[in-house]
Amino acid sequence: MTEIQAKVAVVRFPGSNCDLDAVSALRTFHNVEADLVWHEEPSIGEYDAIVLPGGFSFGDYLRAGAIAARSPALKRVTEAAERGTPILGICNGFQILIEAGLLPGSLLRNNSLRFVCKWVAIRVENDSTSFTRGMKKGQVLRIPIAHNEGRFYTSKREQRELADGGQVVFRYCDERGRPTPSANPTGTLDGIAGVCNRAGNVVGLMPHPERATEPILSPFGSADGSLIFKSMLESI
Amino acid sequence: MKVVISNRDGAGDPEGETIYRDLVSKSVFKQVKGIRSGKFLKVSVEAADAASAKALVSKMCDELRIYNPAAHSITVEV
């Protein structure tokens, strides 16, 4: 038996639907214990890392992520974030982290007014966060997206601050790593697909790494999503 | 109380733009020059007067983040 080196919480809200995929992806790392934790459980803060999975928490009522952001879980996630615990928000999890104020900006409805579900390419813009430290800046990952509200937006001033402060973690790009307008699937500001907090331990992204951890699940035979989880384990 | 949440100008409004471009601008209502979409909340409040009700609802919208100030603006009316 491999010794357990990390305990990771995957937080389940009413309406989460990528939670089991995230648990399954994490369990492919044999030294990881991944628990599905109900959002009201006080134990959330006791884990080495926390994943907020995708889905439609609280039915996306008011705004995607807005109600989960005021749930007891996010008090504990905020305290853990302040202690430096690696925290990953995937899709709806990213929306929740933004609504909770742990990440900057906003996620608005896609320009197309459509739910966009497809494989895309993203480029690593910051390779020193808790979820990218095993990668190289400029590296291109193949990974799927599936969302309706993923158009990142913020003020021009904050956009500059994010770019200057290294808080843009991923940008959509073409196969050769160029962040062209045609490679931008949602009209997201400056091609932004993921951002981090100033300390780099809280990262949110719209793409789904948990759906890209096994070559058999990828049309490209890739497992690039694993790199994000491997980086997380290196950060614990 | 009536709360209207809409996107700030720079944030774009694809829904309002689509309603205008694909429906209204193709209709006989040529005097209509633009449409903005938003979200409407009707809030019931117990308060001494309209001013204090408005102050209370504005405070609630800020503290509970009923809107995201990075992208939205709100109007609060009696």
Question: In brief, what are we looking at here?
Answer:
The complex is a heterodimer of chains A (236) and B (78). Chain A is an alpha/beta fold.
Q: How would you write the strand order of the largest sheet of chain B?
A: 2-1-3
**Total count of helical runs of at least 4 residues of chain A:** 5
Count of separate structural domains of chain B: 1
Oligomer: heterodimer
Question: How would you explain this protein's 3D organization?
Answer:
The complex is a heterodimer of chains A (236) and B (78). Chain A is of the alpha/beta class and 236 residues long. Chain A is built from 5 helices and 11 strands; from the N terminus they run βαββαβαββββαβββα. Chain B is of the alpha+beta class and 78 residues long. Chain B has a single domain, classed as Phosphoribosylformylglycinamidine synthase subunit PurS (Mth169, Chain: A), CATH 3.30.1280. Helices cover 32% and strands 21% of the residues of chain B.
Give the topology, please.
The complex is a heterodimer of chains A (about 240) and B (about 80).
Chain A: E1 6-12, H1 19-27, E2 32-38, E3 49-52, H2 72-83, E4 87-90, H3 92-99, E5 106-108, E6 116-124, E7 140-147, E8 151-153, H4 156-164, E9 168-173, E10 192-196, E11 202-205, H5 225-235
Parallel strand pairs in A: 1-2, 1-3, 3-4, 4-11
Antiparallel strand pairs in A: 5-8, 6-7, 6-9, 9-10, 10-11
Chain B: E1 2-7, H1 14-24, E2 39-42, H2 50-63, E3 72-77
Antiparallel strand pairs in B: 1-2, 1-3
List keywords for this structure.
heterodimer; A: 236 residues; alpha/beta; Rossmann fold; two-stranded antiparallel sheet; 5 helices; globular; B: 78 residues; alpha+beta; Mth169, Chain: A; 3-stranded antiparallel β-sheet; 21% strand
